[in-house]
Each structure stands twice: as C-alpha cells, then as structure tokens.
Amino acid sequence: MDTNTQPITGKESLWGDYQPSQSQLKLVNASPTFISDIHTASDRIDSGAYKPIAIKSDSRVQFDLVDKRVVLTPDFLNWEDTEQMGTLSHELGHFLDDPAERAFAKDYGVNPRDPDAHNQAATLFIRAQTVAEANQWKIAREVEQNTATPGNPGTKLSGSASAWTGPEFDALYAKYRNTGLTDSQLQHRLTTSVMGTFAGVPSDMGAGSEYNVDGSMSGAAPIEPGQPTVHYESDANGKINSMTEEWPSGDKSTQTFKDGKRVQSQTVDSQGKPLRTVDYSNYGPDGSYRIDVKDGSGKTIQRSDFNGDGSGIERGFHDDGSRLETTFGPLKSDAASFGAQSPTKLMTQYDAQGREKQKDYFDPDQGINTNQVVTRADGSKSMYSFNDQEKVGLQNDYDAKGKPVDTYRYDSGSGKVSSHTHFNEDGSRTLDTIDAGGKATRMSATNDGQRSTAQPATFSAAEQQALKEHGERASKIVPPQPVGADTALGNQRTYFDPASNRLTNQDIKEPDGSTTSYAYNSMNLVGYQMKKFVVATLFAGVFAVFTGSAFASDGTITFNGALTASTCAINGNGTSAKDFTVKLPTISTSTLKAAGETAGTTSYQIALTGCTPVTSSSKAAVFYEAGTSVDPADGRLTVTAGGASNVKMQLLNLDGSRIKAGYSTDLQNSKAADISSGSATLSYNVQYYATGVTTAGAANSSVVYSIDYQ
Predict the structure, then answer these.
(1) Confidence at residue 680, expressed as pLDDT on a 0 to 100 scale
(2) Which end of the chain is more exposed for a tag (fewer CB within 10 A), N or C?
(3) Within the chain, which residues score under 70 in pLDDT?
(4) Distance CA 700, CA 688 (A)
(5) What interhelical angle do 81-108 and 117-147 show, nearest 10?
(6) Contact yes or no for 343/332 (Cβ under 8 A)
(7) What does the pLDDT read at residue 335?
(8) pLDDT, position 127
(9) Could you give the count of Cα atoms lying within 13 Å of 224 in the half-sphere of its Cβ?
C-alpha cells in the first residue's frame, strides 16, 4: 500500500506545535498533492533531517532554512481555514524543495563581489518562491475541483502571491498540459515561465519588487536601476540556460548558462551596442572561477579570480593606466545563506608605471580599515592609523630612507591636531601638545632621550593654519571605492563599504535631471530615500580614527632593542637602563614549519617608578608605534633582512592575547597597569611566529614605543 496516499489524520510528524482542525483536515484530504506532501515531509522529519512545525512569536510565517522547519506565528491561528491551508501549502513547497534549492544555489551561485551577484541572489529567491507558488497553485486547484458539488463551486484556498501568479499558472497549464510533457517536465515549464512574473511581484520585505528587494539583500548593486522585465528560459529538466532583463532605460542584459555555470553576462543598449560584457572561465571543481569585464569598446576594465571558499583577488584597470587590486578573505557565512560577504584584507593602488601608490589594510574579523600607507614619487611615505570610530587618529610621516619626520595625533571629537612631534636629522625631536581649547605646550628631547621641561607655546598664524589644514586633510582620508564601483551602468552611481564590499548608497539620475539617492541599512534594504532636484554627490561612509592620549615617542625596544625616557623613570627588563635587549631562545626550524606556528615565548618587563602626577585611576601601557620593522597588515614585527626567513615576531599580553603594533590605541590591545601608587611593572611576552616554512638564520627586530598614560 502506498502510504503517501493515506488520508491525513493530524497525527503525522509534520504538525509539531500546530494542531489542524477537522475542517482544515477536510481541505487537506481534498488534495492528493497535499496528502503526499505531508507524508513526505513527515518521513523527512522521522529521519531526523528536518524538524516539525514550530509556532514562534518572534518570527514570521516561513520555512526556516537554518532550522529546516516550517515556522508559524500565533496570529496565524486566527486566520481563516482557506488562508491557513493555502499558506501552509506554500511553505510545504519550500520544505520539499529545500534539497533542490540548495543544489541550485551551489550550481548557479557566484561570489558576492561578482558583477552578477544581485541577479544571482534575486534568481535564488525568485526560483524558491515560484516553486512554492506552483505547489500552492496545484493544491488549490485540486481542492477547488474536489470540493465542488453540482451547482456549488469548490472551496478556494488563498494566501501568498496567488492572486498574481494563479491566473498565469492556469493559462500555462492549459497551454502545455497536452504537449507530451511528463508531470515533472510540465512542473519545470510552469515554474520557469512564471519566475519572470514573480520577479515583478511587490515584495513584503521592503519597497520594490521581488527582483529588486531579493537582489539587494545580497549587498550587491543591480546591473542598472529600476524594475526590469525579467524572463527565464530552461531546458525540459528545469536547468536555466538563459536570463534576460529589459531595463527602463531601454538597455537589455542577457546571462547565458551551461550546466548551471555562467558563460557570459552582457548588457547592450536599445540599438544592440554592447555596454558591458562579463566573460566567465577557469571553473574549478572547488567552485573557483575567473571573470573578465570589458567595456563597450572591448577594453578590459576588470579581472577577478574567485576561490571556492569565496576569497580571491580583484583587479580594476583605469583609463590612465593605473590599477586597483583588492585581496579579500573567505565568505563569513554559509554559502547557502543570503547576504554572505567576503571581507576585504588589502587594497593596493598602482600608478601607470606599476609603482605602488597606496595600501589600505583591513581587519577582516572586525570589518574595518586599520592602516593606510601612502607612498609618494620621491619615496617618502605617510602612514595613517584608524580605530573602530572610523576616524584618523595617528599619522606618521617618513622620508625616503624610512626615517621618521613628523607624527601627528588627532582629537577623536573635533579631528584637530592634538599633538605634533617633529624629528630632526640628528635624532632630536620637538613635541607640541595642544588641548581642546587651543592652548599648547612644547618640550624637546635630545637624541639620547633627555627631555626638557614643558613650556607654554604659541603658534604663528601660518602655523595655526598649517595645523588646521592637517586636521582637515586627515578627516578626508578614506579607503578607495572597490573595484567596479566606478563602472556602474544606467545613470547610477554606486558606493560600497570598502571593508565588506556591501552596497551602502546609490544615486540615480532621473530623466528630469533630478537625482534620487538611496541609503541601504544593515539588512541590505533601502533604509532612506531622498529626491534631490539640485544634483549632488552622496559619498559612502568615511573611514577614520582616534588614538589615545597625546604622547611622544619615548624609545625603541630592539629584539635586539632600545628604550628612551618617559614621564616615569623607565627600567627595562630588570636593568637600570632605558635601553635593553630581549634575547629569545634559539629555536629549531623544525618547530616552525607551517604558517601560524609559534615558539620561543619570552617574557620581558618595563618597570615604571617615580610617576607624577598620578590619581587614583591613573594607568599606563606601552604603545608600540608604527615603523619600518612593523608589518601594518597584522601588527607583527618583521625580522632584519639577510637572516632567517618566513618568520616574524609577535607581541603578547601576559594573558596570551595578541598586541598589534602600529595600530591605534583602541585596536592595539596593549594591556594597561595601575600606576596610582606612583609605580608599576608592565609585563609582556614576545615569540616567534612562522609565516611559512622557516629557514635558519639570525632573527632580530625592533620596535619604537611610547608610554601611554591613561
């Protein structure tokens, strides 16, 4: 006996928290498809692969992709029987299609940085919804037929988008039912044909159609703005082989597929002239692939290599011969979920001669820009450090030989210069400290660390203007916009978060000359919209930073190293000297044979005595400054060239947490000690850190530091 045809009793495993009434069971048993769906779903639940229905007040009616169950709300229980059963038949469509939906996402999926990412996300949602709609339509049709009596029409189920898609399913069914298609092929034909209609259905998740809203939830920008007319073509087995979007501008985009993989995505104008072509190649079994993007003239403007885990590198080529390269990490969420992002790790800009102009470093875990290094034509450099407040707080300027020239610190609130240290050729330096009211003090230090007493300082009008301009320039320091942001089509200008590549803002120039601006929220939905009749430019978020209280460079630790004077008397590592050496043990390369391995942990201390003035809450920590021996990408220390290779040194607090040298105070993570008694011992560790298979040789490094009084 076929158990999938047995009448539904309400005791099946599917029901869980939900108990159907007798009148509802009567509707269920009027549909052979409904009966079969419930038995199949119950079998899956009995196998442990899925879960029964749950009723949750903090959710909405849906099939939960993560929990693998249908979720209902308390309010659902008050709906009419026809709406409850109509909606349940829709959610069962999602439930039963879940394995196929995941397979479709894997086959047709693209990297979230792909120019077609918006299209892909929209297609995943639209296909899933249309399959569920098809299931609801089929069940509703059976219920209506099987509950009809002479002179009395049958019962009509309702719910979801049936009012939009139902009539089209009816027409297509009448058209194809007698064409020799199998039941499965007929279902595929109906689904693919209606997907285009469903793309235009108003979304219940935000302002716009299913295509617009579902696509934007990926965090990607559409090919062009506006609601397109969408059409899909598939083979007899439901494999999509093409997709087209006809845009309000008159342009048309077409994507072609083979075996579930994109072959090409091309947008042409109303005359058929190419505007942008994306070619797909180098598909690997791990999901890796390459794209080459060409403009209307056939010039390559982008090449991206995507790895199977979502990581990769993008290269954007500009008209002047310069280029931008972005390296990004693996996806931060499961590939089956929507809105997964690949965090940026490094952005590097090159000039037309291939010389490095600028590097932006990111913390992929926190999703923020941490450092920016600007290299000028003469070889001099400026390094800007950022904090989680996204404001520039520290600027270090170096000459072409890598010697420090100036250090500026900026107030987190006003952005004004709060201190300026100028380094002279002989190693001496001058420190100006400026408070919030504009009052300044000045002290000087000799090359051996002897510091003068701070004295009131005044600035000339020219000096005041120079400090003001420094603050203004620092406030405008931001990472570049990601690859592809400047090549958007259809009179739109798009802005992205450089750390995540998520669309944040969109400006659309309307036919009347006005501009409509959209801002996207953390859910990747439109959170703000403004019509501007005076055309303006809306920039995405500014990335900047603040460091802690103002202080001068007080010395250098060399691993072999050196320290200089501070407000407290400094005694390094058990000596009475300000300069000291931390000697790490000699370690066999066999213990450091793979990236990430560590060894040779060695402790060192810096004793502070005679600290004045202090309060009951006074604290101090070592601030490890940026420099030529500090890798701004990870805050570890590089070793002197000519010795051991594939090894760095990393600094640790006593609790084992890592210190990131060169980062701003709030990101560096150097632990502070209480100095309210007038003294304290600051204790840290240093260890070898392998970046690959190490080779033998000397491993020496150094770092400049200051005492941060808190």
Answers:
(1) 86
(2) N
(3) 1-3, 160-163, 205-207, 333-340, 388, 522-567, 576-577, 613-614
(4) 10
(5) 140
(6) yes
(7) 37
(8) 93
(9) 27
Buried b or exposed e, range 667-692, using 16+ CB within 10 angstroms: bbbbbbbebeeebbebebbbbbbbbe
| pTM beyond 0.90 | no
Residue of 220, 224, 170, 132 whose CA lies nearest to 497 = 220
- DSSP assignment of 123-138, as one string? HHHHHHHHHHHHHHHH
- Tell me the two tokens of residue 4: 């999938």
DSSP letters of 232-266? Answer: EEE-TTS-EEEEEEE-TTS-EEEEEEETTEEEEEE
Cα dihedral sign, 119-120-123-129? negative
pLDDT on residue 527: 55
Place of tokens 């408070």: 435
Tens-digit pLDDT profile for residues 453-492: 889 998 888 888 888 888 889 888 888 888 888 888 888 8
Are the CB atoms for 623 and 606 separated by under 8 Å? Answer: no
Measured between alpha carbons, how far is residue 188 from residues 238, 275, 541 in Å? 5, 33, 44
Answer yes or no: are the C-beta atoms of 345 and 366 closer than 8 Å: no
For the chain, helix (H) and strand (E) counts, in that order, are 9, 36
129's CB contacts (< 8 A; 6+ apart) are 161, 198, 210
Instruction: Report the alpha-carbon distance of residue 76 to residue 466 in Å, rounded.
Output: 66
Which residues touch 22 (CB under 8 Å, ≥6 apart)? none
Reading the block at residue 696, the tokens are: 């033998």
What would the two tokens of residue 371 be?
């450092």
Burial class (CB in 10 A: 0-12, 13-18, 19+), 238: middle
- Would you state the pLDDT for residue 689? 93
Give start and end residues of each alpha helix (H) in 2-50. 22-28, 32-46
Residue of 641, 342, 664 whose CA lies nearest to 474: 664
Report d(CA 683, CA 604) in Å as an integer: 6
Q: In terms of DSSP bridges, do strands 673-674 and 429-434 run parallel, antiparallel, or are they unpaired? A: unpaired
- Identify which of 426, 382, 432, 423 has the alpha carbon closest to the alpha carbon of residue 404: 423
Whether 457 and 467 have beta carbons less than 8 Å apart is answered as: no
483, 221 contact by CB (below 8 A): no
* Amino acid at residue number 23: S
CB 243 within 8 A of CB 230: yes
- Token duo for residue 138: 């089929």
Distance of CA 146 to the CA centre of its chain: 51
pLDDT value, residue 552:
43
HSE at residue 131, side-chain half, CA atoms within 13 A, is: 22
Q: Which of 233, 228, 236, 235 is closest to 252 using CA atoms?
A: 228
Q: What single string gives the DSSP state of each residue in 517-573?
A: EEEE-TTSSEEEEEEESS------PPP----SS-----EEEEET------SSEEEET
How many Cβ atoms are within 10 Å of 466's Cβ, its own excluded? Answer: 13
Place of tokens 């970046």: 691
- Rounded to whole angstroms, the Cα distance separating 230 from 225 reads 14
Q: Classify 340 as helix, strand or coil.
A: coil
- The three-class DSSP label of residue 277 is strand
Radius of gyration of the chain (CA): 32
Dig out the tokens for 18 from the structure: 């939900």
Quick one: tokens of 360?
């932006």
